[in-house]
Amino acid sequence: MSQLSLPWVAKDPAVYQTYRRTAIRNLLAGGIVHVVLALGIFGFFDLGSTAKVTNLKIAISIIGFLAPLAVGLALIAGGLGVLFYKQIGNTLKYGYTAASVFFGGVIGVCLLVWLHSLVFTLSKDMLASPQNGAEVVSLAIFDASLTAREIADYLSANLPRLSNPIVAYVLWPLQFELLRDLLAVGGIVGFVSVIPVFGIWWERKIAGRMQSRLGPMRVGGWHGWAQSPADGVKLLFKEDMIPPDADQALFKLAPYLTFVPPICAMIALPFAGAWVFRDLDVALLFILAMLGIEVVGVILAGWASNNKWSVYGAMREACQMVSYEIPMGMSLLIPVMTAGTLQLTAIADQQGGGFHTWFIFKNIWCFIAFFSYYIASLASCKRAPFDLPESESELVAGFHTEYSGFRWSLFFFGEYVAMFVVSGIAVILFLGGWKSPFPPGFALKTNGTWYVDFVVHVLNGVLFKEGPILFVLKSAFLYYVQLWIRWTLPRIRIDQVLYACVQVLLPLTMVILLGNTLWILGIEHMKIEWLGTIDSLIHKVLVLIGAVLVIGMIWIGYNGYSNRRKLVGSLVIDHLPGS
Amino acid sequence: MLEALAFYIFAAVTLVSAIGVVASRNIVRSAVCLLGTLGGVACLYFLLNANLLAAIQLIVYAGGTLILIVFGVMLTSKSPWVVFDPTRGQVVGAVIVSILLATGLCMLLVGNEWPAGTAMTASPHVKDVGTMLLTDYLVPFEAASVLLLVVMIGAAYLARPEK
Amino acid sequence: MLTIGLNHYLVLSAIVFSLGILCMVTKRNALGILIGVELVLNAANVNLVAFSRYQTGAADGHMFAVFVILLAAAEAAIGIAIFMNFYNTLQTIDVDRGDELRN
Predict the structure, then answer these.
(1) CB nearest A315 (choices: B62, B74, B127)
(2) DSSP 8-state symbol, A502
(3) Which pLDDT tens digit goes with each residue over A243-289?
(4) ipTM of model
(5) Which chain B residue's Cα is nearest to A294?
(6) Deepest of A108, A349, B11, B122, by most Cβ within 10 A of its Cβ?
(7) Which fold has domain C9-94?
């Protein structure tokens, strides 16, 4: 196994100092940007929440907590990064141990966040319960409205299995909204940091398999799992280069303008019923706005680089984004019209009746809208075949030609998070969100033994009922389709991109928008009977098509897996899973 | 107290970036500062119980108009460093006039006694705003749609390639 | 100072309005003038929404603000199309050079 060439072991002290300075500066910048921007903006957008919580208090208290917390977290992150970098050469030799520790850590954090969310739902439930006499939930920051005794009473009345004074004391601090917010911000920022790292590794593996290669195999041991973290550490240590003729201030600002808005979109993106940072009543519009602002950063990056390839990339991005936002928004209007609300949690709640109640199968217009949205979202994330802004065969690297190191990696963070966000919107609006494909009554029963119960709860949470894991799985599937398309289709020309938008997609979405309007008018308001009959017939056909598609996809996957030896090159065979 | 702090922070963001818009000699930097002003005003809308309007502000202004302006800059400038400055006398005159305007407006507004009105308690629901748009404000709504059509045709006509 | 009322918003919007006027007067780049107009319209919108929040208690001000945002977008689109023609004719975007009709 080849060793990484580690700049850390540079013998020359001057070189060593340069590396260290770059790394520490980048880590500080990264940590501060992560924490300050995320926390600050998260705090501010508290103001628009629909929950009747004393929002302002929280916003302000978060601002107060910002400065020391940011510096502290940045220092901790810096220390950990240096430690990781020092250790990486050694630990990576024993790949399995490192991998298990890493994945164990990730899964542990996810479980912690999950547990916390469950507990928060419980505490909200308690505060809204009639014993407390108020429908208005006012969670306080500094004064507790519930005592531990009340919590214990509630537990013994409602959840006898958990009625334990220790549990009550553990639950007590969770009524503080501030604590919930800090944990939630930690969870979101952590999730946002993990998505690109594993998304990029996954993409490289998939690209490899699609081209009869292996993809990254060496770093970390098991299928090169540590390739992306190692790349990340490398990027932190690289020198940041700014062209002398570039507009320095804008050049430095642009990566952050690309990176922060997708994180802000996470404010309003629900992972499950209670798993949402702020349940805005204009959630969908807010997320679309944030995805739109991301473009400003890309355009500025291209402009500030003062390089003709960058400017070409930026101009392509500008005209592509501005034109594809229209069909994207109009396709999203169709499920919104069907649901009658812009609040994403409310939209997902209407699709809880199982596979056949998902909006994609609602009627023919929604079915078409799903595909037109998906195509437009590919263009808005600059994914192939619409990756004209960074097309490497024409424009070197498009808008990020002049970027290197840490700033360059921020663009990719932004892009991969945006890919997850658009997949998430598609899942919530069309594919039932965090609801399971099975009908509501379908769930495994517990039998009282604790380990059986645990397995049953996990299975119910993942597959049979509802929960964030289902949402992440569905989004990951759409994300996989994005990768699949990228490595299958060739890139199209810029005039074809605009033609496809203005002359194909836009008229199509207009027609389905009109169709859906008349459909709703006819069925729900004028109660035309024959239209209702046709509608239910179409609905059944669509459900059938959906089922056939799912079964076909599973069959293709199984077929590919069982014939994997024929599908890849001969060098690869020894490394295939299961060989 | 807390609302005041939030207001002052957002107001400071708005004002500082508005000053940046005016003071910057580079037009792209002005546009970036305009992004700060638009964001600050959107936050003020959140404070003023106008959630829908804040989202519209972000989506139309920041995501559409601003990009259009930067796009226009890219198409019409020969180099990022070409600036056309007004003469010193013009600047001094303009600053004096605008300071007078600001003080005059502020004195007028602060000195005025507004009649007691009813304060809004909660953000109006999106559904209510939509209903208003299609009942009380139907004529302006339709006029606006006609206007947009005219603008679309006009912009396409004006920007057509030379024969 | 600590209770925010209508006047706070009015003063803020008056200052932003004046800055917008200043921007329109001092910039010679046509797009700078457009940016100044956007500042002025934003100031007016803050006023409308603030009155809606503190005086009428209904969403009327929001309606006006929505139409103002819409008109601003339309104005920017037309404006930039005109400036493109201006640039194609005069090879510059400096508005003081567009004085051919003066004599």
Answers:
(1) B74
(2) I
(3) 887 777 888 788 878 887 887 788 778 877 666 766 777 888 888 88
(4) 0.87
(5) B63
(6) B11
(7) Helix Hairpins (1.10.287)
